[in-house]
Amino acid sequence: MPSTIEELTINYEEDGILVVKETGKEVLSKGAWTTLLFRYQNLDRKTGEYGKEMFTIRRYQKRQGDYIMKSKFNISSIPQAEKIVDILKQWIEEAQ
Q1: CA distance 55 to 61
Q2: Which residues contact 30 (CB under 8 A, 6 or more apart)?
Q3: Torsion of CA 31, 74, 15, 9, to 10 degrees
Q4: What is the pTM of this model?
Q5: Cβ partners under 8 Å of residue 1, min gap 6
Q6: Of the chain's two ends, which shows fewer C-beta atoms within 10 Å, N or C?
């Protein structure tokens, strides 16, 4: 179990092959509840190449010194990410 934010990753291996490759990580919030934004790619097993860039937001709770993932939201495409960004920008402007 990871005990530091630096140890948190979404890299995932099966049979010694990296099938989910983390390509970026940003800390959105720290504390007993920590939120991270990851950028990643999945391995296409047929071609052996990594696919399109995707994104995921993960929430972790620190309990007894270890981080435990409690929830996640996957953003499956750049167009979906752009739409989320555009909506958030609009809502932020309206709130100011």
Answers
A1: 20
A2: 5
A3: -20
A4: 0.91
A5: 66, 67, 68
A6: C
